[in-house]
Design brief:
Elements lengths: L1 H10 L1 H5 L1 E3 L1 E4 L5 H7 L9 E4 L1 H18 L4 E2 L2 E2 L4 H18 L4 H16 L16 H7 L13 H14 L2 H4 L9 H8 L5 H11 L3 E3 L1
Parallel strand pairs: 2-3
Antiparallel strand pairs: 1-6, 4-5
Helix pairs in contact: 1-3, 4-5, 4-8, 5-6, 6-8, 10-11
Organism: Rotaria magnacalcarata
Pfam families: Mutator (PF20700)
InterPro entries: Mutator_transp_dom (IPR049012)
């Protein structure tokens, strides 16, 4: 239903609204995009796929979970495994998504913002690493602006843990990887519009257009 429904919505956009949808937002396993590629709705344009930001940020969570699982029997700072790893991973997933969404139109800024997560959590009083942080969330920079003291101890993670999870950031901050979510958004609106197909036709196309990155006047 979703595959055929979205393809039908694309195909009728010229006839109904005199526009062409040029981008499709979806996760990497979606079946919709292959359909749009193999059965293109327009003669003179290829649809560009953008990764769904919600789904993309789960990559951070899944990779961190694998690392935590592999280190369950490894002593880190005198204790087995990564302490409090469940909540830590969820936080990293949230921070990753925020970094992507806040910088979705600029790849260089996005790369720095995601790296800033690791640098922020590895910072210490003797080695603050906040040059890529933003004062909108960074307590250290906020304290600096107010000329107040700041203690990293309650917020920083042990060096060995940061070393263990660094490969995840090296993978997911690569420009070739993050370029997939430049100008990205959520496919949730698209899924809702597809489920409602055949009931509110004009509203569906409006919602679909909002969930796509761009349309082209035809």
């Amino acid at each position: 239903m979703e595959v055929n429904g979205v393809n039908r919505l694309f195909s009728r956009s010229e006839r109904l609204y005199n526009v062409q949808y040029t981008h499709y937002i979806g996760d990497e396993h979606a079946k919709v995009f292959p359909k749009l590629s193999n059965d293109p709705p327009y003669k003179d344009i290829s649809i560009v796929k953008i990764e769904d930001t919600n789904h993309f940020s789960k990559k951070m969570l899944h990779r961190l979970q694998k690392i935590a699982e592999s280190l369950k029997k490894t002593k880190i700072d005198g204790k087995l495994g990564i302490r409090g790893s469940g909540q830590m991973m969820m936080n990293f997933k949230y921070y990753d998504r925020q970094a992507i969404v806040r910088n979705k139109t600029n790849l260089d800024d996005m790369v720095r913002a995601v790296w800033a997560i690791l640098k922020h959590k590895s910072a210490s009083n003797s080695n603050p690493h906040h040059e890529w942080c933003s004062a909108s969330y960074c307590g250290y920079l906020q304290a600096l602006e107010k000329e107040e003291d700041y203690d990293h101890t309650p917020h920083s993670l042990p060096t060995n843990i940061m070393k263990a999870i660094r490969p995840v950031f090296e993978e997911l901050t690569h420009p070739d990887v993050l370029s997939k979510v430049v100008n990205g958004g959520s496919q949730m609106l698209m899924k809702v519009s597809t489920l409602c197909y055949g009931v509110y036709h004009r509203r569906i196309d409006t919602v679909l257009a909002q969930s796509l990155t761009s349309v082209r006047q035809w």
